[in-house]
Amino acid sequence: MSGILNGKKILVMGVANNRSIAWGCAQAMAAQGAEIIYTYQNERLKKFISKLVTDEDRLIECDVSSDTSIDSAFKLIAERFGKIDGLIHAIAYAKKEELGGSILNSTREGYGQALDVSAYSLLAVAKAAVKVLNNPASIVTLTYMGSSRALPNYNTMGIAKAALESGMRYLARDLGTDGIRVNAISAGAIKTLAVSGIKGHSELLKISQSETVDGVNVTKEEVGNTCAFLMSDLASGITGDVIYVDKGVHLR
Ligand SMILES: NC(=O)c1ccc[n+]([C@@H]2O[C@H](COP(=O)([O-])OP(=O)(O)OC[C@H]3O[C@@H](n4cnc5c(N)ncnc54)[C@H](O)[C@@H]3O)[C@@H](O)[C@H]2O)c1
């Protein structure tokens, strides 16, 4: 079978279960011929991903809030797979208290944690990844339009996504000479584990659906297909950009 990712090895970080956007990305990239390697956050989450991926060698633990965990993960990746051609960062976390009501509910600790896991982690992972990435290579992260708009309840995560997008642009600038492109996909609302942490998420999903150009929510498969394109050499001219895959919700 010929695909736009034939011969490429790609690391996918952030599959929690079969609803995860990262899983949509992995499936779409595999369909285009890529060989996929996965990281999972901890032993508890390993149980879920093990149901989707049976080859144990392809499953590597990585908690992005720990530099030690990131270093061990990339050491294992290098040992098992040698060089890789790209990585998907589909990771975010904020405590429930940071995701509802007034932004004044935010605390120093909650804010720090959300920004650490959801934004700094892209830089932390890129630092470790440069040693194993080929030239050319591609990095894609997942963001949301709450980065540039004050949406209800999204709160601290919106601030984290603004930092994530900015970090993505600086990375694109600094990794360009290594042949590494860095982009973000701004996905429309999709029902996943992460979304269920946001206060009033059912309402958010409904509003989002009504604001698409055709009244149908975007799917993780559609996000995955864009991810496959950005990972491929067809996208060699695109770096430092935020690509909206939200069925036009951001037009409103
Ligand atoms: N679902 C949406 O509507 C939507 C829209 C736009 C952007 N996004 C973004 O897509 C990305 C993926 O989220 P999702 O919606 O697929 O939800 P998800 O819950 O399936 O995925 C979130 C992942 O983050 C991982 N994670 C959290 N803390 C971590 C840590 N310390 N170390 C390692 N991994 C950690 C979780 O294990 C999980 O796999 C996130 O960045 C999210 O903000 C989601």
Automatic annotation (TrEMBL):
Keywords: Fatty acid biosynthesis, Fatty acid metabolism, Lipid biosynthesis, Lipid metabolism, NAD, Oxidoreductase. Pathway: Lipid metabolism. Gene3D superfamilies: Enoyl acyl carrier protein reductase (1.10.8.400), NAD(P)-binding Rossmann-like Domain (3.40.50.720). Its EC number is 1.3.1.9. One of its GO terms (molecular function) is enoyl-[acyl-carrier-protein] reductase (NADH) activity. InterPro entries: Enoyl-ACP_Rdtase_NADH (IPR014358), NAD(P)-bd_dom_sf (IPR036291), SDR_fam (IPR002347). It is an enzyme of class 1 (oxidoreductase). It holds the Pfam family adh_short_C2. The keyword Lipid biosynthesis applies. The keyword Repeat does not apply. It catalyses: a 2,3-saturated acyl-[ACP] + NAD(+) = a (2E)-enoyl-[ACP] + NADH + H(+). It comes from the Bacteria. CDD domains: ENR_SDR (cd05372). Belongs to the short-chain dehydrogenases/reductases (SDR) family. FabI subfamily. This is Enoyl-[acyl-carrier-protein] reductase [NADH].
